[in-house]
Amino acid sequence: MIKFFLMVNKQGQTRLSKYYEHVEMNKRTLLETEVIKSCLSRSSEQCSFIEFKDFKLIYRQYAALFIVVGVNDTENEMAIYEFIHNFVEVLDEYFSRVSELDVSFFKAVSQVFLSSWQSTGSS
């Protein structure tokens, strides 16, 4: 099960976040900081799957954006990795080469795509 979905830039600023379990706002900030730090500190040769606390992080970098998905231990990592890729392809098609600015200025569009995919199970 997906716990959260984050899009962050190389500076560690969150551009889009969606939580599928309740997390208090002060804990979200701390969680995002720790998650982003662990993903950004890894080299490109390292695996994109990280064991983190009581869940797994699956992340992928596209230009200046990192997409990070937190999942429970039973989730298939490759399916989530492919879900991230498909999500970026949809955004690329919609925005004609998606950029950090597109995600920042048109958060509603990204949220709609993400929510519709998640609710229909088309990952």
UniProtKB/TrEMBL annotation:
Q: Name one GO biological process term.
A: intracellular protein transport
Per the UniProt entry, the signal peptide is: none
Recorded hits in InterPro entries, A to Z, give:
AP_complex_ssu, AP_mu_sigma_su, Longin-like_dom_sf
Membrane as a keyword of this entry, yes or no, is: yes
Is Transcription regulation given among the entry's keywords?
no
One Pfam assignment? Clat_adaptor_s
Q: Which family does it belong to?
A: Belongs to the adaptor complexes small subunit family.
Annotated function:
Component of the adaptor protein complex 4 (AP-4). Adaptor protein complexes are vesicle coat components involved both in vesicle formation and cargo selection. They control the vesicular transport of proteins in different trafficking pathways. AP-4 forms a non clathrin-associated coat on vesicles departing the trans-Golgi network (TGN) and may be involved in the targeting of proteins from the trans-Golgi network (TGN) to the endosomal-lysosomal system.
Return the protein name: AP complex subunit sigma
Q: What is the lineage of its organism?
A: Eukaryota, Metazoa, Chordata, Craniata, Vertebrata
The gene for this chain is AP4S1
